[in-house]
Amino acid sequence: MLRYHTIPVTPFQQNCSLVWCDQTQEAALIDPGGEVERLKAEVAQRGLRLVALWLTHAHIDHAGGTGTLARELGLPIVGPHPGDQFWIDGLPQQSRMFGFPPAEAFTPTRWLDDGDTVQLGQSQLTVRHCPGHTPGHVVFHSAEAKRCFVGDVLFAGSIGRTDFPGGDHATLIASITDRLWPMGDDTVFIPGHGPESSFGHERRSNPFVGGT
């Protein structure tokens, strides 16, 4: 079974998720945005074997520590979708703009597209391309665990911003209604910021997408 632990990192309190297969202890970090030494310590504390870094998108608070971790530990970078290449190229500039530690640009080991899968030990997650917040945003869905790691597509009571370069409000709403809702009302999602919620709760009550 897939297990996970949420680690808020950076001044933006971005939810980095440490996910692992409880049968093999293979682990990945979803959106390692910063505080690299703390993330390493969290992995070591649980006796896990970190095998990959997965990215939902390439904004600095989600991807800022990725290049450093990949280089130091020899890890593959999986995701996001190629639509976020310009955000990856701009990571050093993003880090200066927001006062983050210097961030390294990188080329993902593997780009992701809609319908792809990623494997962690005995657990397989499905990738859905959910643009709107950024052009290359993806989410990771575990049907087995009824969990979805959605980055900045959807929040408890809110949705992702669309006023950054490459953002588009109508596209974001379509991503949520066409690709997230069909995963099921009982699916719990882990957003990029703030508390968890379920798709059913947001579909009923979220003022931005409620009733859709």
Protein described:
Residues 13-193 form the Metallo-beta-lactamase domain. Keywords: Hydrolase, Metal-binding, Zinc. Its cofactor is Zn(2+). By secondary structure, the chain is α+β, with helices and mostly antiparallel strands. The chain has a single domain (2-205), classed as Ribonuclease Z/Hydroxyacylglutathione hydrolase-like (Metallo-beta-lactamase, Chain A), CATH 3.60.15.10. The protein has helices at residues 36-45, 60-63, 66-73, 85-89, 91-97, 169-180, 199-205; strands spanning 2-9, 14-21, 26-30, 49-54, 77-78, 117-120, 123-129, 138-142, 147-151, 154-155, 158-159, 188-191, 197-198. Strands 6-7-8-9-12-13 form a 6-stranded mixed β-sheet. The protein has a 5-stranded mixed β-sheet with strand order 1-2-3-4-5. Strand 10 (154-155) and strand 11 form a beta hairpin. The longest helix has 12 residues, at 169-180. The model has no long low-confidence stretch (mean pLDDT 97).
